Amino acid sequence: MNQILVTKKLYITPELKRKKKIYKFYFFLSVFLVFALISVYIYAEVDRSKSEEASQAIMDEFNQGVEDTTLADGDVLIAVLNDTSEEDNTSSSTSSSQNQPQTTISRSRVQTTNDGFDYSTIATINIPKINITYPILDGKTDSVEETEALLKISPTKFWGPNPNEVGNFCIVGHNYRDTRFFSKVPTLENGDYIEITDESGKTVRYSVYDKYEVNPDDVSCTSQLTNGRKEITLITCTNDSKMRVIVKARAV
Q1: How many CB atoms are closer than 10 A to CB 46?
Q2: CA gap 52, 39 in Å, rounded
Q3: Residues facing residue 29 across a β-bridge
Q4: What are phi and psi of 200, to 5 degrees?
Q5: Using alpha carbons only, how large is the chain's radius of gyration in Å?
Q6: Lowest-pLDDT choice from 44-48, 208-212, 248-252
Q7: Structure confidence at residue 204 (pLDDT)
Q8: Cα(44)–Cα(31) distance, rounded to whole angstroms?
Q9: Rounded CA gap, 122 and 163, in Å?
Q10: Which of 22-36, 44-58, 78-92 has the highest mean pLDDT?
């Protein structure tokens, strides 16, 4: 009996004890990492949900501005088009009397991000196919830091003229690989519609005519050579964030 006990005791060597400690360490480390990853994921989801709520609050404020500016001091807000071919794609408030004065009222209000960057809402974007409607923000400095801060709130102007003007109005938005922001923009196809409503309340419909991918440092998609047409460019990341998805559309 004593022989068996001694043999069993000797079988548990210092090397085995060391390995058991290592295994325990790796086990607890794995558990810790799993909980850490879950916590980071939950935090990111909460942060994105807050961004979505902030974006929709800005959208509500922008839309309220449409109602508040349709009648101001007896004036009627009327969208005046330079090209009659766009009449069917433009929303405007009309007057019962053509003798009333025509005016365009800006309703953008300067706001500040938590990081201290000032911005205003210059338009809204609606894409029926992927069921998204967001405000389009515009910062004051166009710095990388400012753009990153604004992108956490909503799609943001990246380059180009004011909304619905001649030229290439470029909009950048995050791809969260879900249904928020520009996550579903890569699924758009030629012929799909995108609607931009500017500060005057005018809505112009654009039709997608091209989609492709470029390297992150390729900004050729921002070219303003549009032959006098109104165009928009949507920019977002691929799902692996290695490339940029470019969606081009022009006014119908």
Answers
A1: 10
A2: 20
A3: none
A4: -80, -5
A5: 27
A6: 44-48
A7: 97
A8: 20
A9: 7
A10: 22-36
What gap in Å lies between CA 77 and CA 161, rounded to an integer?
A: 22
Residue range 97-145, pLDDT digits in tens:
333 333 334 455 788 888 899 999 999 999 999 999 999 999 999 899 9
Q: Give all domains of the chain, ordered by start, each with its CATH number.
A: 44-251 (2.40.260.10)
DSSP the chain: -HHHHHHHHHHS-HHHHHHHHHHHHHHHHHHHHHHHHHHHHHHHHHHHHHHHHHHHHHHHHHHHHHHHHHEETTEEE-PPPS-GGGGGG------S-TTSPEE-------EE-TTS-EEEEEEEEEEGGGTEEEEEEEESS--HHHHHHHHTTS-EEEESSSTTSSEEEEEE--B-SSSSBTTTGGG--TT-EEEEEETTS-EEEEEEEEEEEE-TT--GGG----TT-EEEEEEEE-TTSSSEEEEEEEE-
Q: What is the DSSP string of 151-172?
A: HTTS-EEEESSSTTSSEEEEEE
> What is the spatial distance between Cα 172 and Cα 187, in angstroms, rounded to a whole number?
16
The neighbouring-strand residues paired with 144 are none
**Pairing relation of β-strands 118-127 and 132-139?**
antiparallel
